[in-house]
Each structure stands twice: as C-alpha cells, then as structure tokens.
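queue> pop job 88
queue> type: inverse folding (structure -> sequence)
queue> payload:
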C-alpha cells in the first residue's frame, strides 16, 4: 500500500513510540514495579506496535481478527488499570461495562468479516470510550479530594489518563463514520485516519512520560 510522506511519518512514529514505554521498563527493570496497574496496558501497546508493523503491514496478514483481539486486550487492561487506581470501587460499573462489551462482541461475532469489521470495531470502541471517560471523571474527582496541586502534577496517572482521553475521545467520531467513509471515498478515509495516528502519538508520548516519572520517582527514593 502506498503511503504519503505524512501518513508514513505518523504511522512509523506511532509504532516506534508504542515500543518505548515497555523498553523503558525493561531497561529499568528494578525501578518499575510490574504490579503497577498500567503495566498490562503498556505490554498490550508494545505487542500492538510490533504486530501492526510485522503482521499487518509487512506480512499483509488480514487485520480483521487482530482488531478484535486488540479490542478485547485493550478494554481488559484498561478495566484492570482503572479498577486498581479507583481503589477497587464502583464494581457495579465495571460489571456493566464488561457485560455490555461482551454482549456486543458476541452478538456481532457471527457477522464479522472484512466488510463489517470497521463498524463492529466502532461499536466496541464506543463502549471503551465511554468506559475511559466515565472512570477518568471518577478518578479526577478522587484526585481532587485527596491531593494538593503540586502532587497532582507529579502523579503519573494524570499523564496516562489524559493520553487515553485524547486518544479515545478524539477518535470516536472517526471510528463511527470510518466504514461509510471507506466505502465512499478511500482517499479521504486514509487522510482522516491520520488523526488516529496523531492521537495515538499523543497517547503514547504521555504514556512514556508517565512511565518515566514512575522510574524517576523510584530512583530518587
């Protein structure tokens, strides 16, 4: 597939940035607690970056199944992350989001093919977006009550959550209209898809910053 210079730049930048958080943790193995709730998400982003380049781009493996697997891994690790930083509260909300995602996934699985996966991906992405927004609001309310302004700026979770809000909140409309756009104007679809890469770059950059802050804090102890 031909990539315009800008499309290629954003694509490769997003992939490279997706590997850095995990590599930082690997390099500073003793200075990052693997029990930190963001770690599973970091691993998923690392795997996604490698697979999207080698599996989807180089080997041309059909991306349909990977997209579905990624959606499951993403919401699972994000649920795990928010569940722990919210001190294991709001269990009913977590159950509701899990049930909604599973029901949507199972119902649409029988209809999954190359023509429908963008729409199905959009439905699943919308649920994950609602989850991220809901639990982000709850976490920021919790942070507001418990910490002073200086401590908030130093909290690595601020960077993780702001990155997630940018990525999921900024791409929800793109995902919902992606299939119609692809069917009617492929050139405009690939141009619009650069927004997805750009917001992934923002998310992964803030993920790097948050991971680095955790490592730096451990070094200073």
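queue> result:
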């Amino acid at each position: 597939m031909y990539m315009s210079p800008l499309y290629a730049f954003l694509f490769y930048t997003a992939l490279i940035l997706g590997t850095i958080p995990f590599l930082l943790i690997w390099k500073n193995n003793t200075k990052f607690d693997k029990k930190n709730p963001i770690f599973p998400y970091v691993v998923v982003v690392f795997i996604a970056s490698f697979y999207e380049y080698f599996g989807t781009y180089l080997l041309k493996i059909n991306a349909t199944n990977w997209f579905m697997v990624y959606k499951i891994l993403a919401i699972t690790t994000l649920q795990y992350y928010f569940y722990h930083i919210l001190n294991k509260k709001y269990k009913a909300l977590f159950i509701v989001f899990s049930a909604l995602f599973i029901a949507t996934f199972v119902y649409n699985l029988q209809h999954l093919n190359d023509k429908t996966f963008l729409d199905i991906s959009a439905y699943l992405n919308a649920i994950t977006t609602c989850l991220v927004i809901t639990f982000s609001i709850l976490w920021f309310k919790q942070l507001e009550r418990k910490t002073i302004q200086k401590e908030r700026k130093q909290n690595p979770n601020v960077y993780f959550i702001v990155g997630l809000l940018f990525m999921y909140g900024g791409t929800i409309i793109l995902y919902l209209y992606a299939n119609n756009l692809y069917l009617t104007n492929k050139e405009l679809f690939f141009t619009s898809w650069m927004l997805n890469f750009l917001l992934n770059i923002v998310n992964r950059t803030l993920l790097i910053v948050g991971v680095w802050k955790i490592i730096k804090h451990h070094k200073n102890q």
